[in-house]
Amino acid sequence: MILSQIDSLLIGGPKDFRADGTKSAMAREAVDRPVMLRKLGFEGDKVADPTVHGGVDKAVHFYPAEHYPKWIAHFAEQGMAHPLLEKAGAFGENISASGLTEDKVRIGDRFRIGKAVVEISQGRQPCWKIDHHFSVHGLSALVINTGRCGGYFRVIEGGEVAPFDRIEQIEQAPHDWTIDRVFHLLIGGGHRAPDAANALKELRDLSSLAENWRGRAAKLAP
After folding, report:
1. Which residues contact 54 (CB under 8 A, 6 or more apart)?
2. MOSC domain spans which residues (predicted)?
3. CATH homologous superfamily of domain 3-174?
4. Where are the beta strands (DSSP E) in the chain?
5. Domain spans in the chain, listed from the N-terminal domain onward
6. Is 104 exposed, middle or buried (0-12, 13-18, 19+ CB in 10 A)?
C-alpha cells in the first residue's frame, strides 16, 4: 500500500493564455491553508474549458513529483533550464506528491487525503496547451511518449485537505490496470497492437475507469 504526503497543494482559475482570447487554468498557485474538497474539485479551483476539463471524473489533477528531475534533465540536454520547473505546478496539477507514479497506481485505487477519500479515475491526456504553457513545441507528444502523464482523482467523500496532509492508500483495485498500462493502450498507440482487442474490451467494461476513457476504449475496440 502507498503512503505519501502532499508536497504542494495548488489552486487556480482561468487566466489569459493566448492573444486570441483563449484562457487556461494551468497556472495554479500553491496555498498554505486547508481547502475544502467536494465532488467537482477544490473550493476556489476552476477550469477554463469544462467541455474537456473538470467534472466528476477529473475533480483533482495530481502529478508525480518524481517526474520533475527527469524533465529538468531533459531540458538540460537541450541546453536550457526551464523556469516553470523550479516549483510544483508546472503541469497544472492540484496535488504534487511522490509515490503516485503511473506504474504504481491502478484505476480504482482509493486514498484518504486529509479528511477526504478519492479514487483514481484516469490518466491525464496532454494537449497543445502544455506546449504553449512551456513555449516548447512537441512537449505534449513527449509526455505521451514517456508516459509521464499524471492522473485524476474522483471524489468519493468530500472533506478538508491541507498542504502536507498524508496520502494513504486504503484500497487497491482488484486488477492490474495501472495508469501507465491504460495510458499506453488508449493514448500511447498500444491499441494498434494485433492482440489489443481483448484488452480494449476489458477497459470498456471497467466501471472505475472514467466514462470518457471507457468510451474511447469502446471506439478503439474492433
Report:
1. 40, 41, 46, 47
2. 29-170
3. PK beta-barrel domain-like (2.40.33.20)
4. 3-5, 8-11, 15-16, 23-24, 29-30, 35-38, 41-42, 60-64, 95-97, 110-113, 116-123, 151-157, 159-161, 166-171
5. 3-174
6. middle
pLDDT (0 to 100) of residue 101: 98
The set of cell numbers assigned to 105 is 497506481
- What mean pLDDT do residues 61-84 have? 96
pLDDT at 5: 98
Beta bridge partners of 151: 62, 123
- Rounded CA-CA distance 163/96 in Å is 10
Surface-to-core class of residue 203, CB atoms within 10 Å of its CB (0-12 exposed, 13-18 middle, 19+ buried): buried
The predicted model gives 95-113 an average pLDDT of 98
Q: How far apart are CA 165 and CA 186, in angstroms?
A: 32
Residue 178 is given by DSSP the state B
| The three cell numbers locating residue 23 | 484562457
Residue ranges of alpha helices (H) inside the chain are 67-77, 128-134, 139-146, 179-186, 197-204, 211-220
Q: Whats the size of the chain, residue-wise?
A: 222
DSSP state of 125: P
**Which residue is listed with cell 490518466?**
123
